[in-house]
Specification:
This protein is α+β, with helices and mostly antiparallel strands. It has 17 helices and 23 strands. The protein folds into 3 domains: about 40-70 and about 215-395, 2-Layer Sandwich (BirA Bifunctional Protein, domain 2); about 85-195, Herpes Virus-1 (2-Layer Sandwich); about 395-505, Rossmann fold. The longest helix has 27 residues, at about 100-130. Bound molecules: adenosine-5'-triphosphate (ATP). Adenosine-5'-triphosphate binds near residues 262, 265, 334, 374 and 376.
Length: about 500
């Protein structure tokens, strides 16, 4: 087993053991690619959502939020292009009967070449030591250059063929590269077919009267169809944004890697409406802004990178991903897309209604262009959870597992721990609990030795443990223990609220 697989397995089992994420319908042997958030997971997820909302809506006067319904008029998905083009190319292996995304098979092949390049770099780094110049090496080493060229050729062919919907050529490429089924090693493939990812259901009570509707595959369309209502009732002036968080559904062909790719997931999206012609300025602005948001959470900057799209979706004229170094390697966490006026124009066409904005400065009406930022809440959860998960060997040789989550996102901010279950310590601890839980999620625990209780709190990422001992009764002080440094400070009970609030702000 590779280290990466090992790390993902550890994360999945930690998420279950400590009440973050459970498999859906577990007692019925589960439902593929659907997950439930448990008592600690729901807090972390809610905190991530609130943190995003604060950065997007609360901190930007020109961005407002909405919460549109999951069910929408079915023609919306015709207008948006999802009925005709929201497809993934699928391919089956005839021997193993396993189904794959044809493009992902080729992308995994590309990732292997990239891994070879990285190995060359590592080797050279060891050989040359301090005098090693990575940039120069990447641009001059013959083996690296040959591999880079090979990668460029393969991606150009893959994305070119997908663009032209030349599925026979995608299959030919898989055969030429001799890509085998990762499970069986067989190269016996079916044709490549397009598969629509939308879930359909019936609305209405009788079969004859019922109409087919879709579970939304993205939250964005709920924003587009409400854009004019919001603009008018909110008296919004361009440029302005509309944000929304909510469930989206995709019948993913291959759903694996835990909560990275699910069939029911949550998105946090913001559509920013701008003047036609100014979209590239705002595209660059939001690309930079979103990266700043990620970095502000304090996870190492090396975990993030941009990936500019070569294959653009049917609605976009520029697109980039913010990729994160997940346990399975660098993968898309967030997308920033310049969606042009594609969606609003399409809704004008299908409804016959004008979706224009009158720009008082230019004295003209136009259909705005749109920049979208779209991040998966569950993927953000996985990114944070995996980067925060650490196994440490302490000075005394003992081991601890700690979630170094940003304090602002941690499920519980403080644990209130009476040292013993007697001498009035629980009563004093309860008073502190009652005081602090008005402002912070707190957990009260009096069972087991204090060391064990600290470990349990470390494992769920609680940044502060407050311990009540005999001195607390005498002089109204407690110790406050920092999760990351494990250092303890003695502080006055009356200052606790301010100390915790300040530490949360500092670590945000
Ligand atoms: P991918 O290429 O990984 O399928 P995508 O490019 O289709 O993703 P978008 O349509 O841009 O994704 O959706 C925006 C965001 O929604 C993604 O960056 C991702 O974080 C999240 N997302 C998309 N599909 C899923 C899924 N099946 N499960 C969890 N999150 C998802």
């Amino acid at each position: 087993m590779t280290n990466n697989e090992d790390k993902l397995k550890k994360i999945i089992s930690h998420a279950k053991e400590y009440g973050f994420v459970f498999q859906s319908s577990e007692i019925y042997d589960g439902l593929s690619a659907v997950y439930d958030y448990a008592q600690n997971g729901v807090e972390l997820k809610k905190n991530i959502r609130n943190h995003w909302w604060k950065a997007m809506v609360q901190m930007n006067e020109n961005i407002v939020g909405i919460d549109s319904a999951i069910f929408m008029h079915p023609t919306i998905w015709k207008a948006s292009g999802h009925v005709d083009a929201f497809n993934d190319p699928l391919i089956d292996n005839k021997d193993s009967k396993k189904r794959y995304r044809a493009d992902v098979l080729v992308e995994d092949y590309l990732a292997k070449i990239e891994a070879k390049i990285n190995k060359e770099v590592e080797k050279a780094e060891k050989r040359y030591g301090d005098s090693f110049n990575k940039e120069e090496f990447l641009n001059t080493n013959q083996r690296v250059l040959a591999n880079k060229e090979k990668m460029a050729e393969i991606s150009a062919r893959l994305y070119g063929s997908l663009e032209k919907n030349d599925l026979d050529d995608v299959k030919a490429l898989i055969e030429e590269l001799e890509i085998a089924c990762p499970l069986s090693g067989s190269k016996n493939w079916t044709e490549v077919k397009q598969f629509n990812l939308m879930f359909a259901t019936q609305m209405g009570s009788t079969a004859e009267g019922a109409s087919e509707i879709y579970l939304r595959p993205e939250t964005a369309q709920g924003i587009f169809v409400n854009y004019l209502n919001v603009q008018k009732t909110g008296r919004m002036k361009i440029p302005f944004g509309i944000a929304q968080t909510g469930k989206a559904f995709r019948n993913e062909i291959v759903a694996r890697q835990f909560i990275f790719r699910m069939r029911e997931f949550e998105q946090m999206e913001m559509q920013f409406f701008v003047r036609p012609g100014e979209e590239m300025k705002w595209y660059d602005y939001w690309k930079a802004e979103r990266m700043v948001w990620h970095l502000s959470l304090g996870m190492s900057a090396e975990n993030y990178r941009f990936h500019d799209h070569e294959k653009l979706a049917h609605y976009a004229n520029a697109a980039a991903d913010i990729e994160f170094n997940f346990p399975m390697g660098f993968k898309e966490l967030e997308g920033i897309h310049s969606r042009t006026d594609f969606d609003l124009k399409a809704h004008e066409k299908y409804t016959g209604k004008k979706l224009r904005y009158f720009d008082p400065e230019l004295n003209e009406s136009y259909v705005p262009y749109v920049i979208e930022t779209s991040i998966g809440l569950d993927r953000m959860f996985l990114a944070l959870f995996s980067a925060a998960y650490n196994e440490e060997t302490l000075e005394d040789g003992s081991e601890r597992v700690v979630l170094n989550l940003p304090a602002v996102l941690a499920p519980y901010k403080a644990a209130i721990l009476p040292l013993m279950k007697k001498d009035g310590l629980p009563e004093k601890a309860r008073e502190i609990m009652a005081e602090l839980q008005e402002d912070f999620m707190c957990q009260y625990e009096e069972k087991d030795a204090i060391g064990k209780r600290y470990r349990r709190q470390d494992a769920i990422g609680t940044p502060f443990c407050i311990t009540i001992d005999h001195d607390s009764i005498a002089d109204n002080t407690v110790t406050i223990r920092d999760r990351d440094t494990m250092k303890q400070e003695r502080v006055s009970i009356k200052d606790l609220r301010e100390i915790i609030a300040k530490k949360i702000r500092n670590k945000a």
